[in-house]
Amino acid sequence: MNNRIDVLTDDDRWSAEIADAGVWSEKIFDEALSYLQKHGLDAGFGFERPICVNLSLSNDDEVRKLNREFRGKDKPTNVLSFANVDDEMFWQELETADEIELGDIIVALETLKREAAEKNIPLRHHFAHLLVHGILHLFGYDHQTDEDAEEMEHIEVMILQQMGIDDPYEEQCNV
């Protein structure tokens, strides 16, 4: 299967922070899909066709604009996801599509760096967590209720664990 994550770098500073961000994103994407497939968490459309996701490695300014426009929040956030599964046309087009286009994920570099420093965790690990979080949103997962949040967090932790990354929800020791 030719699943793919199309990575667009909107901010040149990414290469200085995570030099292999494109390759790392592909690994994270593959690990997330592998876990979801293995555990039957397919959002109702299966894995018979290739899955495609668009990832934008961006910055706080761009994410703030998108957050303001689409969520009514005039501030940057770490990751935004725009899931096609939320669009009723997605399900109609899914019947005849050659690939499943799940949607778009945008990560803000400055917020990513600040949060990783505050949590005293490697930048690559925090990026992996945010990308997994975004991927799950594209599959229709959310954290609107405590029960939904617990389910989503559990899946995030399990995917990260299979990559050798610690549970991002455990209290971190700031040194």
Short descriptors:
Collagenase (Catalytic Domain); 49% helix; alpha/beta; 175 residues; 4-stranded mixed β-sheet; 7 helices; globular
Describe this protein's structure.
With 175 residues, the chain is an alpha/beta fold. The chain has a single domain, classed as Collagenase (Catalytic Domain), CATH 3.40.390.30. Helix content is 49%, strand content 16%. It is built from 7 helices and 4 strands, in the order βααβαβαβααα. It has helices at residues 14-17, 21-38, 60-71, 88-94, 109-119, 123-138, 146-162; strands at 4-9, 51-58, 79-83, 100-108. A 4-stranded mixed β-sheet has the order 1-2-4-3, with helices on both faces. It is globular, with a radius of gyration of 16 Å. The N and C termini lie far apart (44 Å).
Biggest sheet, in brief? 4 strands, mixed
Q: Any idea what the radius of gyration is?
A: 16 Å
Q: Return the CATH topology.
A: Collagenase (Catalytic Domain)
Structural class: alpha/beta
What is the strand arrangement across the widest sheet?
1-2-4-3
Q: What CATH architecture would you give?
A: 3-Layer(aba) Sandwich
Strand content: 15-25%
Task: Work out the helix count.
Answer: 7
Shape: globular
Distance N terminus to C terminus? 44 Å
The whole-number mean of residue pLDDT values reads 91
Overall tally of structural domains: 1
Order of helices and strands: EHHEHEHEHHH
